[in-house]
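Protocol step 4 of 6: structure prediction from sequence.
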Amino acid sequence: MSEQANIAIITGGASGIGLATAEALFPRNNWIVYLLDRDAERGETAADKTGAYFIRVDVTDYASLAAAFGRVFKEHGKINFVFANAGIALEAPPETPKELSNEPPAAPSMKMLSVNLQSVMFTTHLAQHYFRQSPAASGPRCIVVTASSASLYASAIAPAYAASKHGVLGWTRSIAPDAWKQDQVRVNAILPGIVRTNILPPEMFAMFPEQMLTPVDKVVEVVLLLLDGDGDEKAGRELRSGQAVEICGTNHYVRNQQEYCDPVMAAIMGVGA
């Protein structure tokens, strides 16, 4: 069966956008889905619910992630779709000293960058490795990365989150051209607004009117659009690779990269290399 089936790996797959994407793949037939997550209880429940396979993984641990990819590839001999979706939105800020002191403050935590950015770099690195070993005629070769609307805008209330997601978008756009040119692997990013998932506590969603929230189903719609590589009539262009699709409410927008200030800067950044 796995010779004809397409093989998907979804990080952060035990809940939220990852789980909803897995649920959307199964009615399409011929998909075998692996949910990667650190939450074993949720992961096993999600696997039972969807018919997917669950592998407990800490995405910030490269060895753990690499072992999961290796297991999937050994089982099926190919990988077709990787959804680098794991991430966090909240982290306790470092304590502010109660009294002024000449001593340096405690170092800020790098967990946000580790989970949101480093894990995406790990995941896409592994995906590209196994795509190169997958037969070219064995189905799609596609990576979708969950960035955020905070990839585009400053956020005074969540600077570490915004920094991590700016990095995610920069990484995605930077690797996409060579991934397509060298291996015909499509790499694209989704940039959702506020989505009601367990990434935030329920009381935080109460701060926003319902019309400001982005439905999970809308996010999944865009993920599948990128997976299929179909032309997007709304955007008037083909979503091939290196695209960033912002999702706000029930609308989505293809967001172009900022223009280079001049040809010299374009050359410095490697355009045309």
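Step 5 (inspection) to follow. The domain at 6-95+106-268 is CATH 3.40.50.720 (Rossmann fold).
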